[in-house]
Amino acid sequence: MSGLVESGFGPAPGMPAGMLDGVRRWLAESGGEPTPARVAQALREQGRVLGDAEVLGAAEQLRSELVGSGPLESLLADPSVTDVLVSAPDRVWVDRGGGLELTAVTFPDAAAVRRLAQRLAAVAGRRLDDARPWADARLPDGTRLHAVLPPVAVGCTCLALRVVRPRAFTLGELVAAGTVPPGGDRILRAVIEARLSFLISGGTGSGKTTLLSALLGLVGPGERIVLAEDSAELKPDHPHVVRLESRPANQEGAGLVTLQDLVRQALRMRPDRLVVGEVRGPEVVHLLAALNTGHEGGCGTVHANAAADVPARLEALGTAAGLDRAALHSQLAAALSVVLHLVRDRAGRRRIAEVHVLERDPSGLVRTVPALRWGAEAFAYERGWERLRELIRGGGKGTGDCEREW
Questions:
Q1: Which of 66, 96, 112 is the last residue of a domain?
Q2: Which domain holds residue 148?
Q3: Is 60 helix (H, G, I), strand (E, B) or coil?
Q4: What is the rounded radius of gyration, in angstroms, for the C-alpha atoms of the chain?
Q5: 303 exposed, middle or buried (CB, 10 Å; 0-12, 13-18, 19+)?
Q6: Is 246 helix (H, G, I), strand (E, B) or coil?
Q7: Would you call 255 helix, strand, or coil by DSSP?
Q8: Cα distance between residue 296 and residue 388, in whole Å
Q9: Same structural domain for residues 261 and 177?
Q10: How far apart are CA 113 and CA 85, in angstroms?
């Protein structure tokens, strides 16, 4: 079976492509939705009489093309798929957690890819055309969209869709999936219970958001979590969550709301846990300031190649925001306690590679110290483990189980 038929994009069984083109024209001229009744009416206008199965197939085909995700719909509906990537009409890739796989799904031509990208961007309220040839947005169902049009994308529109699960993974599920080593969930629970401030670092697609959502689900039900995100992807299983999302300026250049704005607003919303979905700009200044003024247990994610690179990454962001190096490291030393670093191994599996604590060297600069590293059977202890255990014990006020266990 061809990729077109598998995707639901090709003609319905037994229905010529020309007939579908006629239905499309009739619907466009009449302004009608592709309901089964209207598709049947369009077919009658062409002098065609088909059975119920053919009419329903044509209606579903047209609905997918006009208001759904077109040939990508079946891929996005697969619960095992985390990413769908289109780089050419006949190059549609998916990631099911084990690396990229080329699918049999195809588009008729490059123009069809462009039309789908522009329609999805419009659904998300974003402009995507020759004057603004890229878009980064969240679709109504939570799917993350990124698209780039030619000639910026050479040859064909590039489309990337990241599927957001309807619910967060539990920590137990991450242990079962191999993201957290056996017994590692006890340590992560202790970090949350001790209200230690932490960052989750890693590369793109390493599972930072997935892990953060799972950890936020461990926060006590009496605490108020305020999330500030560029694109609302975190979905913690928690009864008291306030979600804030940034937005771009409109076509007149008005209405811009930055992540920095959201962090400032979040501080006025009585957060017990302040969470920044991804620290990647001047919001780092406000986040560090907040974590130094009584907002314990704050957290977020940051892109970094290794846990040891996180201080340098934050230093670069802080310097760009006007915070000098010495001030940044002073704030960092007092604000942040733990770094959890995620990687994707060669088999495509996402896992926690290492856990670091922070310390200041004689020059006053902050560096990270390995406390735990990945082990197939359990976390292996490194020289920073004693420091991490002290932090867990010291932060365990009001969490007697945490204090007794560690």
A1: 66
A2: 68-164
A3: helix
A4: 25
A5: middle
A6: coil
A7: coil
A8: 16
A9: yes
A10: 11
What are the tens digits of pLDDT across the range 238-284?
Answer: 999 999 999 888 777 788 999 889 989 998 999 999 999 999 888 88
Residue pair 45/38 in contact (Cβ under 8 Å)? The answer is no
115: helix, strand or coil: helix
Residues 6+ apart with CB under 8 A from 293: none
Question: What is the domain count for the chain?
Answer: 3
Residue located via tokens 């690179």? 309
> At residue 168, what is the residue type?
A
Q: Are residues 20 and 59 in the same domain?
A: yes
Residue pair 191/199 in contact by the 8 Å Cβ criterion = no
Separation between Cα atoms, residue 163 and residue 142, nearest integer Å: 7
Same domain, 124 and 150: yes
3-class secondary-structure state, position 19: helix
CATH number reported for the structural domain that contains residue 119 in this entry: 3.30.450.370
Gap between the Cα atoms of 79 and 11, Å rounded: 25
- Per-residue pLDDT tens for 151-179? 999 999 999 999 887 778 899 999 998 99
